[in-house]
Write a structure and sequence with these properties.
The complex is a heterodimer. In chain A, the strands form two sheets. A five-stranded mixed β-sheet of chain A has the order 1-2-5-4-3. In chain A, strand 3 (58-66) and strand 4 form a beta hairpin. Chain A is 20% helix and 25% strand. By secondary structure, chain A is α/β, with parallel strands linked by helices. Chain B contains six helices and six strands. In chain B, helix 1 (20-29) runs antiparallel to helix 5 (140-155) and helix 2 crosses helix 5 (140-155). Chain B has one domain (10-172): Rossmann fold (3-Layer(aba) Sandwich), CATH 3.40.50. By secondary structure, chain B is of the alpha/beta class. Chain B has helices at residues 20-29, 41-50, 85-94, 105-110, 140-155, 165-172, and strands at residues 10-12, 15-17, 34-38, 73-77, 100-104, 131-133. Classes of the chains: A alpha/beta, B alpha/beta. Chains A and B meet through loops of A and loops of B.
C-alpha cells in the first residue's frame, strides 16, 4: 500500500518547522533520509512524534556507524522512524566526533530505545546523555574497548596457529 | 553390558574374587551420566545421538544430568562466547570427581569459523578437555565414537588418579582447585 505522505511533503513540513537545523535531505531508494544538527536531534524526534500531520511515532531501530576517514564527524547515529498511521518511514542521521561522542538519549520519548542505545554504546562507545543505565549489554563486562570501531580487528587477537597476514592481525 | 577386557576374576564356590578398582571402573563406564552443555547446532546433533536412532542409552547413558553435581561427563556442544566462558568453568567446577569433558565440534574445540573478538577460541582455554570430536557439526556416529573413547578413559581410571600431583598440576594451569582444596 502506498504511503499517504510524499517525501517532498514531509521534507517541506520538517524544514518549515526547523529550517537550517536540517543539514541535508536525500531519498536513496525512495527512502527519505535527513541529517540534522546533533544538538537538535532530541527536539526534532519529539516534534516528529507529536506533529499531527506526520505522526512519526514509532522507533523501528537505532544504531551507530563508524566512518574513520571523516575527520570531526567519525560517528553517525542513525534512527529509523516510522509513522504507522501514514505508512511512512524516515531515516534520521546525526554525526559526532570521536573526541566527544555524546548525543542526547531518547529513552524519555521511546522506552524501546533503552537497549538499542546500550548496544550502540557497547559496540561504538557513543554515550547517550540522560540514559538511565548506560552499561554494556551484549559483550562481556570486562571488555576494555569498543569492538565495532574500525581500528580494532574483528579476529580474536590471541590465536597463534594462523598466518596473521591473512587474518588482519 | 560392556565388558572390561583385562578384568581377571577368580570363581569359587558361591563367591567371585576380582580387583575392586577394575570393578568400580566397569560400573562407572557403564553408567556415565552426561551433562549436555549445548549451545548450537552441535547440540542438535547430540540430541540426535540421544534419540532412538542412535541411542546413547545403549551405553548406560539414558539419564541426562542437568545438575553438574550428579554428572560425570561434561559434553560441551556448540559455540562458547567469551561471556559464557566463566559460566562453563563454574559448571565444570561444580561437578564432583572423577569427571571428564567431551568437546563436540569445531567451535567448542577451537572456536571454529568464529575467529572473532566475542568467541572463546576453544574451551580448553578455560577447562581441561579429555576427548575432542571434530566436525561442523559432527554426525551422531562421531559423537558416539567420542563417547566410546571417554568410556576407555573411564575404564582405565585408577582409584588414586584424581589425588595425584600430576592431576593437580593439570588443573593448576586452569586455576581450578582440586576437590575444593
Amino acid at each position: 500500500m502506498a504511503s499517504k505522505l510524499t517525501n517532498e511533503a514531509v521534507i517541506e513540513r520538517i524544514k518549515g518547522q526547523f529550517g537550517s537545523d536540517i543539514l541535508s535531505a536525500e531519498t536513496p531508494y525512495d527512502f527519505l533520509t535527513i541529517e540534522v544538527l546533533t544538538s537538535k536531534q532530541h527536539e526534532i524526534i519529539e516534534w516528529l512524534k507529536k506533529d499531527e500531520m506526520l505522526s512519526i511515532s514509532f522507533l523501528t531501530n537505532l544504531g551507530g556507524v563508524h566512518y574513520p576517514e571523516q575527520a570531526g564527524r567519525e560517528f553517525a547515529v542513525v534512527y529509523h522512524l516510522q509513522s504507522m498511521v501514514n505508512n511512512f518511514r524516515l531515516r534520521l542521521k546525526i554525526y559526532v566526533s570521536k573526541e566527544n561522542p555524546e548525543v542526547d538519549s531518547i529513552v524519555d520519548l521511546y522506552v524501546g530505545a533503552n537497549w538499542m542505545e546500550r548496544e550502540t554504546y557497547d559496540f561504538f562507545g557513543i554515550t547517550f546523555k540522560g540514559h538511565p543505565n548506560l552499561v554494556r549489554i551484549l559483550n562481556e563486562d570486562s571488555m576494555d574497548y569498543f569492538p565495532m570501531r574500525k581500528e580494532y580487528h574483528l579476529e580474536d587477537a590471541t590465536r597463534e596457529d594462523k598466518d596473521d597476514r591473512f587474518f588482519g592481525r | 553390558m560392556g565388558k572390561i577386557e583385562d578384568l581377571e576374576v577368580f570363581n569359587g564356590e558361591g563367591y567371585q574374587l576380582s580387583r575392586l578398582d577394575k570393578v568400580i571402573a566397569a560400573a562407572r563406564a557403564n553408567s556415565v551420566w552426561p551433562l549436555p552443555f549445548a549451545t548450537s547446532c552441535c547440540g542438535i546433533e547430540y540430541m540426535g545421538s540421544m534419540g532412538s536412532n542412535y541411542d546413547v542409552a545403549r551405553f548406560g547413558m539414558e539419564r541426562m544430568s542437568f545438575s553438574p553435581r550428579q554428572a560425570d561427563l561434561l559434553i560441551v556442544a556448540g559455540t562458547i562466547s567469551k561471556k559464557l566462558a566463566p559460566i562453563l568453568k563454574q559448571v565444570y567446577e561444580q561437578m564432583s570427581e572423577p569427571k571428564w569433558v567431551l568437546s563436540v565440534g569445531a567451535c567448542a574445540s577451537s572456536g571454529g569459523i568464529f575467529d572473532t573478538y566475542s568467541v572463546l577460541q576453544g574451551i580448553d582455554r578455560v577447562i581441561p578437555v579429555d576427548v575432542y570430536v571434530p566436525g561442523c557439526p559432527p554426525r551422531p556416529e562421531q559423537i558416539i565414537d567420542g563417547i566410546m573413547k571417554i568410556h576407555e578413559l573411564v575404564k582405565h581410571e585408577g582409584m588414586r588418579n584424581r589425588y595425584s600431583d600430576e592431576y593437580k598440576a593439570k588443573l593448576d594451569k586452569y586455576n581450578i582447585e582440586v576437590n575444593g582444596k
